[in-house]
Design brief:
Layout: H1 6-35, H2 41-53, H3 55-93, H4 101-117, H5 122-133
Amino acid sequence: MDDYPLLNLFWTMLWFFLWIMWLFLLFRVIMDIFRSHDLSGWGKAGWLILALVLPYVGVLIYVIARGKSMGKRDIQEAKERDAAFKAYIRDAAGTEGGGHRGGHVEDLSKLADLKDKGAITEEEYQRAKSKLLV
């Protein structure tokens, strides 16, 4: 280690870090190329060839030309994922009416009210209750 000074080690680590960051950016650009719905197949092929044949320049040009729309696509995808997650949670928790678990309690309560008011008979109540609980 005496023949490799500390400053050289620092520069080596810096270049390695920059190379890793560039690889992440390259993969990010390639993912964005394929995710983009506003590019045609030929447009995607052109950007991909540019990013792979002239990697540093191609990635830089892509980020300059399409960086803003890249961020918008990220935000839109995050909103869609969040909405899907919230819909899944609502469905799993059964907070909406209808065929969900929480909706059965509300439906049974409505049926009991109808039976108490005399709008339905005991037989109709039992049939509707058995349909709900199945």
